[in-house]
Amino acid sequence: xxxxxxxxxxxxxxxxxxxxxxxxxxxxxxxxxxxxxxxxxxxxxxxxxxxxxxxxxxxxxxxxxxxxxxxxxxxxxxxxxxxxxxxxxxxxxxxxxxxxxxxxxxxxxxxxxxxxxxxxxxxxxxxxxxxxxxxxxxxxxxxxxxxxxxxxxxxxxxxxxxxxxxxxxxxxxxxxxxxxxxxxxxxxxxxxxxxxxxxxxxxxxxxxxxxxxxxxxxxxxxxxxxxxxxxxxxxxxxxxxxxxxxxxxxxxxxxxxxxxxxxxx
Length: 265
Hints:
Strand order of the largest sheet: 1-2-4-3-5-6-7-8
Helix content: 25-40%
Order of helices and strands: HEEEHHEHEHEHHHEHEH
Shape: globular
Distance between the termini: 71 Å
Strand content: 15-25%
CATH class: Alpha Beta
Low-confidence stretches: 8-21
């Protein structure tokens, strides 16, 4: 009996220690970021300018603004959790090639963006770039696009404004349930400091919504996108299934490209 108690105490200690580590280190697990030097020079095939906004708490918020003559509109793009604008600037060349201007920001701690990161600051930063977009385009020209981590931010911003459309690539239903999948033995709902509630934000979205998800997504399971879609009022959204599509490779599938280009035509 004494040995059993010792074993249970050891296991409890390991569990508690793991929970503490998860709580304090969660940003490292969620945000796969790295900084770029302030003088880092970007090189892309299309015209662009660097944008630096200052947040209410003094952080520098950095973005790339791709422009062209006579664009069809503008795409405000909220990217995933890995990589800086050095990578995402390349990713959005696809959208530029479809005839759209594109504005894509780096979150705090990514690239040239600075400042202490919190859920409230990230949501405020995302909205600040929507305001920047409104300074250059009319609202009926704006497409809000979220990918992976950025789908929660994109939905939040759209819920507070009236853009032309919202496009979500590999979205999660809510961040808590996604995190619980990776850490099933811990009370994630108590420990999680970042819980973007896409399923709640989306109730206040009034523009057309388009969701794209691959059936073999290993990061955000297909059922997340499907569940989010099913929570939306009938007639407000369209869901595109990409058979065999994974989390990072939807662009390789003709079904995905046809769907995106059909929406943005």
